Every structure is written in structure tokens, then in C-alpha cells.
Amino acid sequence: MPSILTRPSGGGGGATPKSITLAVTDSGGNPITEAGFSSEIFLTATEAGFTATSYRFYAIDSLGVVVNIYEGANDNTSWSISLSGSIRLFAEASDDDENWAGVDVNFTVIGNPILDADEIYSIRLINGLYTGALINVRRSSDNATDDFYPDSNDRISDSSENGSGTALSTWLGGSDGFVTKWYDQQENADAIQITAGAQPQIASSGTVILQDGLATIDFGGANYFTTLATKATENTVYMVAKCDTFGGTKENTRLIDLHDGLASSSLILDGTATRMKNSSWQLTNTATNYNARDTNRHLFSAYFKSASNAFRRDAATETGSAGTSVSIAGTTSTIGIRGDFQNTTFLDGNIQEIIIFNNDQTSNQTVIEDNINNYYTIY
Fold first, then answer.
1. 139-195, pLDDT tens digit by residue?
2. Does a structural domain hold residue 153?
3. Which of 56, 79, 111 is the last residue of a domain?
């Protein structure tokens, strides 16, 4: 049966071979080799040749992303699938005498709502069918530009290479690096900045800028992107972002603006009070509330549709008073500034990922948020 495998791999020096089997079943106890994204599956490990006291279950996808499912004394667990595509499920067992055994199972995950997004901008490769570069970089020393591709871990790093096989850090040679294009992995609308002084930064003195151990694109208070993405009147946006400065000239910090800036669908961190706003729907909070603005990195989730707007931060729903909202379509979006380019709205912070849907994805929000958080470990 494909979903139950045995592999002897034990230690301890005894004459009895040490082995383990892993059974993967649905809620009815039926063996399965595939399931839908976010479905709950059940894993049971059975050892032979020794009595285990500790078990570990985990999963790895084709991009090398690891999800630790369970570690402890129980020989079984359940998991709501948060990876996609072809994955491997692992079980390991050990006892107090250093006997151990491990096994892995090939498993297929059907569907992933993130792959239905209209635009994907990220420092990691999300769309496994996308073969292009993640970013185009300008070198400060001579203004040369080049595309850079995912590294062996499928993300941007110092070792990301251009089309000639030269690593980003080598190509920079100690110079700063600025992003001229943040490529859309859905190939609908790249985020672009052709003006050198307005380009967000990816590397400093030849080294990629990091946020919590992963590459990030830094918006230093005067940088932004524009895209020519056609936006519907209904949108859902997921962003991994961090703001460094509020108040003063950053009183209406724009993370993203999907339309023209005035009548728009925007995700805003307001520096004049402890509040967050999206579009003209306003969330007013006090400093003691969970959603008081801060300078930490967060996963922001926003759904825009007239008075139906909804806002979440780190998978927790924000509450506030709903005002008069707008529901418009547009053909230009901005990242890091208001859509009408008011210089008081520049983002001073960084962004690692933006996923945009031209529809309502609130029914999939838990699945999408889990996928993002499993990668970035935000909350």
C-alpha cells in the first residue's frame, strides 16, 4: 500500500532490526495518498524491534519548506495540510537506549488558493511553474542592472545568481543594490521603479538586507513601486511588511494603494493616532488594544468591497467603526506610497511579500495565512 512504508534504520546494536511504518489516513481511517490543500489528515507510526518513547512527524515540500507537525510521546497525530504539490511526510521514533527508526511517504496535495492570485510579489518562489527572475537589481557603483533568480533554497539571497551564473553578492562587489523591478510570479503586472532615487533597496555594501533571517526589500521613506495591474471593485491582499517610522511626515504610511489614492482601496498605518485604515473604512483603536500600530513585522490581510471591508493582522480580526467606503476599479496600483504620490505617505519600512486577488478570498484566509506564516514564522 503506497501510504504505508517500512524502512529499517535503527541503532542500538541489538540483534533485532529496528523499523517503523507510517500510515496516512483520512478521518474515517481509510489509507490515502492524496488530499486537498488544508484538508485534515491523520498520521500513525508503528515501530518494530524496540519500544519507542518519542515520536516526531514533519513534512517537506518540493521547494524544501519544512513544517514540523508534532514531536512528543504520542505515536499518532493529525495535520491540516499547509503545503502544496508533491510533498514527503516523515515519521521518526526513538527510545531511551538510542534505538531509532525513520520512514518517509510520498504524498500529493491537491490545490493551493495562493496559486489563483492575480499578482504574487515575493522574495521566495511561490509559483512552482514560474521560471523567471524574482527581482531586477541596479548596482550603485555603475548603475548596471541585471535579473536575479531564486537560489538553491528558492528565495533571494547573496547566492542568488543572474543568467550568467554570477552570485548577487559577487556581482555587487561591495556596492549597494536597488530593485528596479519586483517580478510578478503570475506574469500579469510587474512592480516597477525606473527612477534611481525612488528605487527600494535590496542590498547594502554587497550584502542582501535581511528581516528575521530572510531577504527583504527596504523602503527608506522615499521609495515606491507602481504596477499596471487592472484592479476589480473587489480585492483581497496579503502582505508581509514592517513599518519603522510613524507620525510627522509619515502620518499616513501607505503599504499598498490599489487605485488612485484619494478614492482608493488602501492598506494604511496612520501615524497621527493608534489606528489602522483600509480604504476609507477606518479602524480606531487605543494603545491597549491588540491592533495598536507598532514597528514589528506582521502579516496584514485586507478584503476590500465597499462596506464589506475586513482587516486582519497576524490571523486575528481587527475591529473598528466602519465608515463610508468606496468600491471602484482601477488600472494602476502603488506599493509604498499613496496612489496620487503624496510625499507624506511614503513607507519607511520593508516588505517581503504581497499577494493580490481580484476577488473575495476570505473563505480561504486561514489556509493562505497559514502558508505564509509557516514560511516566515511571524506569529
1. 999 999 999 999 998 999 999 999 999 999 999 999 999 999 999 999 999 999 999
2. no
3. 111
Cell 464589506 identifies what position?
A: 308
CA distance 22 to 43: 7
Contact status, residue 27 vs residue 56, Cβ threshold 8 Å: no
Residue 345 is assigned to a structural domain of this protein:
yes
- For residue 36, give every residue at least 6 positions away whose Cβ sits within 8 Å of its Cβ, in sequence order, or none: 81, 109, 110, 111
Residues 79 and 118 in one domain: no
The Cα-based distances of 314 to 23, 111, 130 in angstroms read: 33, 23, 28
The CA radius of gyration of the chain, in Å to the nearest whole number, is 23
Answer yes or no: do 215 and 340 share one domain.
Answer: yes
Give the total number of structural domains in the chain.
2
The rounded distance, in Å, linking the Cα atoms of 135 and 153 is 16
Please state, in angstroms and rounded to a whole number, the distance separating the CA atoms of residues 287 and 211. 25
- CA 119 vs CA 31, 40, 242: distances in Å: 37, 28, 20
Render pLDDT for 298-314 as a digit per residue (tens, 0 to 9).
999 888 776 667 788 89
Based on the fold, state whether residues 221 and 320 are members of the same structural domain: yes
Cell numbers 489563483 correspond to 116
Strand order in the sheet with 19-25: 4-6, 19-25, 40-48, 76-80
* Cell 476590500 belongs to residue: 304
Judge if 105 and 217 occupy the same domain: no
Instruction: Record the pTM.
Output: 0.78
